[in-house]
Amino acid sequence: MEEKNKGQNIRVTDRRSFDPKGKRRVRAQKEEKPKHGHAAAGGKDTSSEKSGEGARLPETVNFVFFVQSLYGQACMHLGDLEDPATREFSGNLDAAGITIDFLGILLEKTRGNLDPDEKKHLEEVLYDLRIRFAKKVSPS
User: What is this structure's pTM?
Assistant: First the structure.
């Protein structure tokens, strides 16, 4: 069998927290782990390659992105957005209600910890979803 890595140096680093005698190892420098969706070298965003079909994810995932993802799920459950799995506009009002409740709990539990823009965004999303939900549930 031919060796493909001949001439290349391979480096193995023991990252275990304890040595063979059971004593905690002291690390000279803490290694920084790359963020999800980013390559270790150069910070190139590879998340769109992994998510398929050219979907673009933001450089960093933050609170507004999290709220937007829940908003999208709720809209999908309300039947206002296409389900990416089935490519259909089908609703599930129970699931929509639960997702809206999640956002309400999030607003309640983060009270006083959000910056003004985050709070405003969450309140606007909740208002929009509650109106949409009420229109779907109420008989016309």
Answer: 0.57
